[in-house]
Amino acid sequence: MDSNALYATLPDLSARIMRSALASQAVVDWDDFCRSSHIRPVRFDGGEGQLLAQEEMQLQTSFAACTADARNIWFDVGLRYRAIKFGELGLAMMTARTLGEALQIACRCQALTYSLIAYRYASAPNGAFALIGDDSRLAEPMHDFSHHRDLGAIRTLVADLMGGELPLERVTTPAPPPADWAQHKHNFPCPVQFNAEHTQWIFRPGAANRPLPMADTDLVSLYSTRCYSIIKRAQSNATVKSRLAAHLNRSDGEFPTAGEAARMLALSERTLHRRLAEEGTRFSAMIDEARYSRARELLTDGHMAIEQIAVAVGFAEPSSFSRAFKRWSGMGALEFRRQAQTRNPRFA
Questions:
Q1: Using DSSP, how many helices (H) and how many strands (E) does the chain show?
Q2: d(CA 348, CA 345)
Q3: What predicted TM-score, i.e. pTM, was given to this entire model?
Q4: Which pLDDT does position 36 carry in this prediction?
Q5: pLDDT (tens digit, 9 = 90+) per residue, 99-122?
Q6: What is the dihedral of CA 44, 19, 24, 2, to 10 degrees?
Q7: How confident is the model over 258-282, as pLDDT tens digits?
Q8: Mean pLDDT score, 252-256
Q9: Under a CB-based contact definition with an 8 Å cutoff, are residues 321 and 299 in contact?
Q10: Which of 97 and 248 is assigned the larger pLDDT?
Q11: pLDDT grade, residue 230 (50/70/90)?
Q12: Pairwise CA distance, residues 210 & 333, whole Å
């Protein structure tokens, strides 16, 4: 997914996969889960529906937190992402002429994938190629979940495109291995290296030119064009406020200055301030909202002391954080933590 296209529409099939996994673990009621993700409850009545990419991202963040004590399911969840579940993008990939063309379409249309890792396609003259992942924008709590889930999802996608074959030479991932990896390694015909420096899916020589069984020149053109239109429409609908909020929500370190934020959005600092004013807000107000949101998450999680949370959300002194939090919420940070944990000891 792409933070610049959070209004892209995605099939709700990823949400269905997460709901099924939660049900199998008896972790939490689905409606409560959606509300804890700060989105409307997602209904599955009447066939396939759609979600905004922003909602999908929120669901994934909550799913990773909710299943943190059952992380062995993350790879299994990834295996359920069949090619057809990617909607228009899945059809574009399935009707591509070759495996290389299919995965290049996926890289160009990442806003329509369910992955939070950015992949690029790198080719070699002998027909070998690699998918190289960039997780630099991935928040730390999402790191292992995203890599384990993608390990299963990309494996299933390639197998679906190739009629079951996996022309892989090697896979590397920065994540540690799932605790039950010995039970899953049979899914790969090649070595999988964990705790690596980078994410790489390296395909054998000639793999890029392997024909796909459902290749259709007319259909791949049709579905690719539809994908590009969805992304273009989503990007044009996104306000500067929503784009900035997406960056702030995914930030796992210090919040950016106005100048740094402007560069991330490819704007001048003056234009950033002007556009935010036109949209009824200020940069400082958005930083406050991001700090408040991060503080609520950390207080609900319960693993960090108030002093540590103060530093994590950008305050040098706990007393300054306490005053700010009371201004934001109308109650003290300790009282908020007690109430959140009383409502749901596992989930806020």
A1: 15, 7
A2: 8
A3: 0.69
A4: 73
A5: 999 999 999 999 899 999 999 999
A6: 150
A7: 998 888 777 899 999 999 998 899 9
A8: 73
A9: no
A10: 97
A11: confident
A12: 58
Q: Which residues contact 33 (CB under 8 A, 6 or more apart)?
A: 19, 22, 62, 63, 66, 347
Q: Which two tokens stand for residue 145?
A: 């979940």
Tokens of 80: 């359920």
Structure tokens at 328: 């934001």
Q: Give just the sign of the alpha carbon dihedral 142, 144, 150, 152.
A: negative
Cα–Cα dist 132/135, whole Å: 10
Burial status of residue 177 (CB atoms within 10 A of its CB: 0-12, 13-18, 19 or more): middle
CA distance linking residue 337 with residue 345, whole number of Å: 10
The residues, ordered by sequence, that sit 6+ positions from 118 with a Cβ below 8 Å of its Cβ are 110, 133, 134, 135, 137
Domains of the chain: 3-231 (3.90.1520), 240-343 (1.10.10.60)
Counting every residue written for the chain, the total comes to 348
User: Nearest-CA neighbor of 37 among 249, 252, 243, 338?
Assistant: 249
Q: Which residue has the tokens 């009371």?
A: 326
- What is residue 346's predicted lDDT score, i.e. its pLDDT? 44
Distances (CA, A) of 120 to 3, 59, 101, 104, 233: 16, 25, 13, 8, 23
Max CA separation in the chain (angstroms): 64
**β pairing state of 199-203 and 129-134:** antiparallel
Residue 340 tokens read as 């959140």
From the centroid of its chain, how far is CA 292? Answer: 22
How remote is the C-alpha of 85 from its chain's centroid? 16
54: three-class secondary structure by DSSP: helix
Place of tokens 């889960």: 33
Give the mean pLDDT of the chain: 88
Q: In the prediction, which pLDDT does 152 show?
A: 97
Measured torsion, CA atoms of residues 94, 169, 76, 252, in degrees rounded to the nearest 10? -100
Q: Are 83 and 163 in contact (CB under 8 A)?
A: no
3-state secondary structure of 326: helix
317: Cβ contacts below 8 Å, ≥ 6 apart: 310
| Distance between start and end Cα atoms, the chain | 25
